[in-house]
Design brief:
The complex is a heterodimer of chains A (about 325) and B (about 350). Chain A is mainly α and about 325 residues long. Chain A contains 16 helices and no strands. In chain A, helix 5 packs across helix 9, helix 5 packs antiparallel against helix 13 and helix 15 packs antiparallel against helix 16. In chain B, strands 2, 3, 4, 5, 6 and 7 form a six-stranded antiparallel sheet that branches. A two-stranded antiparallel ribbon of chain B has the order 1-8. The chains are: A mainly alpha (about 325), B alpha+beta (about 350).
């Protein structure tokens, strides 16, 4: 901006339009800038800020889509219901169970794959990277149906492959215990962007560090642990934040797998599935808003905690300690 | 490998250590590449499952072969007889059609030499392996195509994706330009708020947004899937802004001195120099919209004629459950467009992401 502002000091060049330049370049530019920002500012107000506030207000009402004009304030009763609702507990625990399995995988898999794909000993790195990234392009609906068939207990290939090694594979999709690992496996196809950021991070590490460690006699695992991991800790942190946010947005895979009914045995009745059912199937928008705000508050607390703890383990090379 | 290096000096010539190092390098590369290849094979094997299943008939699925195989039959004197792989006395395998089955000996005819007529083979036919040939059922795709009215889904998806893409390009380019170039008070705070919206769970704003669209009568139309994209998207603004900031300001200034308005500078200076990132944003939105399932699910649930591929496939596949070949055929049909786009544009796509993915 400052650079554009400097044009003020060269009025002689713009003598064809002296009036325009004299009118306060800075203010005119600010106005232009606001014009350019206006789509986002309007969109933010209409599609984010106002709905958030409205959602908070609705969470204290009995707003019902079937009966939209009979809206009453009901005080804290939605919140009382939230804390005594057994389905909230069950859905939260399903979500947490999944998160405990999924988060380590979504951090470790991109790390290992990126280590492989950045190895100088790999032929055809570009081709491999392209092919490892490719499943990220597959629509989630296709991915779920493909994996559902692939993981089928009888006709699926995974159990067929396990059978070659004499292992009798489980009923991945229809058993309460195996559906979580199954969803984690399905989710691996969605890690493409984490993979790319991790690769970019690893490529950005100065080679002198590796050379120095090599000269000092460090082995490949020590180098990975002591140099690669700390150097790309900002990327790991970035991927962790996105994974956690992903958990708070996680809906499509459990919804499609569980046919919106939480099959098998409520295992896929995740928090967001319950929220969706409450608001759209049962049209209970008041309680749906309460569920949404509870989710929002938890999401903000978790994200804030991550940012606070990140100071302890994320290393920014540009920063002084 | 260490032993090789130590042993090397005992050789009389100087080429040996070089050769040993070369060999060690080669072995290392071969090991890593082979490892990557096997990991990739496992990683992509569901696609092979999908493709194989999509080409099978129900009988071929229950037969349990990985590939869509059918038994070979041979028409001998007006009747079809199954063909088996029969070991001859010299140990070679022959494909012969079985005419009469017996417990210890059976009558065969050789399809390659039918004039030789029927002959008897000593042995148990039950121990023989049926001869199979690849028999892909291309008709599955026609069936799925018609049953889900694929042209309609394709048309709907394309319209939603292209209109939204235009919207997000127009708005995100303008907003990114605003953030990159103009002196706006509180700009940094605004930019933080913009980035903050990425973290916001969609579900928080869902109920009021849905209610709003329902009130103005937009549910059951494409408008809620398209219009919001005309108000910029945080990811896209971020990508574009990062790129715009790398364009030297001298060009802007030169244009401005020539009397160009900021809008003209955007269209004539900034946009022409930003083709790679604009293409990346356009493609990523197109693929996002193509694959999006959630928004059409909530806004179009009662209007099947407006469904895009994602919702259409899901709804029909619930009823196709007993016909896995059709489920896999539709899955293939739904993913083909984004995957082909990706392969044709992967250079732009990967570069665009890697390029801005990390900025230390």
């Amino acid at each position: 901006m400052a650079a554009l502002g400097q044009s003020q000091s060269k009025p002689s060049v713009a003598f064809t339009r002296p009036k325009q330049w004299s009118l306060g370049m800075e203010r005119r530019l600010t106005l232009w800038g606001l014009v350019f920002l206006s789509p986002w500012i309007i969109g933010f107000l209409v599609f984010t800020l106002v709905p958030m506030v409205t959602s908070l207000v609705l969470s204290f009402t009995d707003y019902d889509l079937l009966n939209p004009n009979a809206i009453n304030f009901v005080g804290l009763s939605n919140y009382n219901r939230l804390f005594s609702d057994p389905q909230v507990g069950a859905s939260t625990s399903a979500t947490v169970r999944f998160a405990i399995l999924a988060l380590p995988v979504s951090i470790l898999m991109p790390l290992l794959m990126a280590a492989l794909l950045t190895s100088k000993r790999l032929w055809g790195r570009r081709l491999f990277t392209t092919l490892f990234y490719m499943p990220y392009m597959v629509p989630v609906v296709s991915a779920v149906f493909i994996w559902q068939g692939f993981l089928n207990q009888e006709s699926g290939w995974l159990n067929g492959i396990l059978g070659i090694f004499g292992i009798r594979g489980p009923d991945w999709i229809n058993s309460f215990d195996w559906i979580y690992p199954s969803m984690v496996i399905i989710g691996i196809w969605g890690l493409g962007n984490y993979l790319l950021t991790t690769i970019a991070g690893m490529q950005g590490i100065p080679t002198e560090l590796y050379e120095a460690a090599y000269v000092d006699g460090a082995g490949p695992f020590t180098i990975f642990r002591k140099i690669t991991i700390p150097m790309i800790s900002p990327v790991i942190f970035y991927n962790l934040i996105l994974s956690v946010i992903g958990i708070f947005k996680y809906f499509e895979i459990p919804y499609i797998l569980g046919r919106g009914q939480g099959q098998p045995g409520g295992a896929t009745y995740f928090y967001n599935v319950y929220l969706y059912k409450t608001a759209f199937t049962y049209q209970d928008m008041g309680y749906g808003s309460t569920l949404a705000w509870a989710l929002f508050v938890v999401a903000m607390i978790v994200t804030a905690l991550l940012f606070v703890t990140s100071r302890r383990w994320v290393y920014y090379s540009g920063e002084r300690n | 490998m260490a032993a090789q290096a130590k042993a090397a000096p005992t050789f009389p010539t100087y080429t040996s250590p070089v050769l040993a190092r070369y060999l060690r390098n080669f072995l290392g590369k071969a090991t890593i590449s082979l490892l990557a290849f096997f990991v990739l094979l496992v990683f992509l094997s569901p696609f092979a499952y999908m493709t194989a299943t999509a080409f099978k008939s129900p009988d071929q699925i229950s037969a349990g072969n990985p590939l869509p195989l059918s038994p070979i039959t041979y028409n001998y004197q007006g009747t079809e007889y199954p063909v088996y792989r029969v070991p001859a006395d010299d140990g070679t395998l022959h494909e012969w059609a079985i005419i009469r089955k017996g417990r210890e000996e059976s009558t065969f005819v050789d399809p390659a030499n039918p004039d030789a007529g029927e002959f008897v083979w000593q042995g148990r036919w039950r121990t023989l392996e049926a001869a199979m040939h690849l028999d892909p059922q291309f008709g599955n795709f026609a069936t799925a195509w018609n049953e889900i009215n694929f042209p309609r889904l394709l048309f709907n998806t394309s319209c939603i994706a292209i209109l939204g893409m235009i919207g997000t390009l127009l708005s995100s380019i303008a907003v990114a330009y605003g953030f990159a170039r103009f002196p706006i008070p509180g700009k940094n705070v605004l930019f933080l708020v913009l980035i903050g919206t990425i973290i916001l769970p969609t579900f928080v704003t869902l109920v009021p947004t849905y209610t709003f669209f329902a009130r103005i009568g937009w549910t059951g139309t494409w408008l809620p899937l398209i219009v919001p994209h005309f108000f910029a998207n945080a990811y896209n603004v971020f990508l574009l802004r990062q790129f715009f900031m790398t364009i030297p300001r001298d060009l802007d200034e030169a244009a401005m001195i020539d009397g160009a308005t900021p809008f003209q500078i955007l269209t004539r200076v900034i946009v022409p120099q930003s083709t790679p990132v604009i293409v990346a944003v356009a493609l990523s939105h197109f693929v996002f919209a193509w694959n999006d399932y959630f928004s059409p699910l909530i806004y179009l649930l009662g209007s099947p004629s407006l469904w895009p591929i994602s919702v259409g496939i899901q709804q029909f596949n619930y009823s196709f459950g007993t016909r896995p070949h059709l489920v896999q055929a539709t899955s293939l049909m739904a993913m083909i467009v984004p995957v082909v786009i990706f392969f044709f544009s992967q250079r732009v796509y990967l570069r665009g992401v890697v390029f801005t993915g990390i900025d230390k």
